[in-house]
Amino acid sequence: xxxxxxxxxxxxxxxxxxxxxxxxxxxxxxxxxxxxxxxxxxxxxxxxxxxxxxxxxxxxxxxxxxxxxxxxxxxxxxxxxxxxxxxxxxxxxxxxxxxxxxxxxxxxxxxxxxxxxxxxxxxxxxxxxxxxxxxxxxxxxxxxxxxxxxxxxxxxxxxxxxxxxxxxxxxxxxxxxxxxxxxxxxxxxxxxxxxxxxx
Length: 199
Prior knowledge:
Strand content: 25-35%
Distance between the termini: 26 Å
Helix content: under 10%
Number of helices: 1
Structural class: mainly beta
Order of helices and strands: HEEEEEEEEEEEEE
């Protein structure tokens, strides 16, 4: 498998059931995929619409001609370290928005995820593109990416889950799940963050 096709598997939505010929997930739910760290001048990203949905031709791109006007800028940039992605299913009944944190589902189906509460022990990852209901997709479990703010975010600050699938500045005694690389003036803003990973 080429590096490009390996990457393309991550930037895709899959039906939750069905055969591989019908486009079902290429791996069981909970499967992890690692995107290696990149050298100077190489970046990764994929096409995301203004609403946060994947564009029709969405796929990861690895090239030395990354164009921020064409690709989303959330991806792994030069010398940002590796990313770890994990395959999950959205059976919440609604769309998981880009930047929302997700947590384990019920014990029988832990990777049929729900919107994140406040307990970091259950954090699976953060959606880097919109995931419709009844679709399986990869979420970012660890590494540099985007996250939705649940309140004003201070740049270069430890972050916690705010109880509503978003991140907020962590205080003394809070469990830290990410670190902000950019700030926001309020809630509902996509910020750059390092997701620290709990699994």
